[in-house]
Amino acid sequence: MGFFSRLFQPRADGLQAPSDWTRLPDSNASELVLFDEEARKLVAQFDIDAAIVTHQRWLPWLGEVLKGARDEHLRPEAVADDARSELGQWLHGSGREALGHFPAFDMLMRRHHFFHQQAAVLIRHAEAGETLQAEQAYKACQHASRQVVLLLKELQRGLVRGRRPAERRRDKSVV
After folding, report:
1. What percent of the chain has pLDDT over 90?
2. Which of 52, 95, 102, 112 is positioned for an S-S bond with 90, CB 3.0–4.6 A?
3. Rounded distance, CA 70 to CA 137, Å?
4. Is the pLDDT of residue 153 over 80?
């Protein structure tokens, strides 16, 4: 329900919506209006959920590289460029636009870049047969990945804290 309370603001006149849903509001405009700032935050929040999911796909792929699997898409020079991943594209684009003002955003950018650097190191060592170094790089990737996810969740919490106090109280009462 908290999700819908963010989408559908109460009527400005304080009246209940008709329960039969057979008639339209008196005005020509929809009552289901999302203000620009709220829409931006909601879109950013959905992007954060998607970003977490897409980022978490990396560790299993890198784990397969450790086991000897080779994938032409996981080339060190491509993996090292953090702007080429789905999360990187989001971070460098709409994520920065929507969330760049949060203090955690810059740290997220640095940790995400570090993750990609370590992933490239892992692939290079794995391809060279340097198992111990590849495993160390994998551990660095795991640690950086956990930090990336935590920072994404912190940004998501920042969106909730950034909403008006009445909206937060309403969401808590519904939960």
Report:
1. 46
2. 95
3. 17
4. yes
CA distance 11 to 30: 10
Calculate the CA dihedral of residues 47, 53, 55, 57 and round it to 10 degrees: -150
Residue 6 near residue 38, CB atoms below 8 Å: yes
What is the torsional sign of CA 41, 42, 44, 45? positive
Mean pLDDT score of the chain: 78
Show the domains of the chain with their CATH numbers.
Answer: 2-6+36-168 (1.20.120.30)
Helix (H) or strand (E) holding 35: none
Measured in whole angstroms, the distance separating CA 12 from the mean position of its chain's CA atoms is 32
In whole angstroms, give the CA distance from residue 7 to residue 63: 40
Q: Which residues contact 121 (CB under 8 A, 6 or more apart)?
A: 76, 133, 137, 140
Condensed to tens digits (0 to 9), the pLDDT of residues 55-105 reads 999 999 999 999 999 888 889 999 999 999 999 998 999 888 888 888 888
Residue with tokens 């994938």: 71
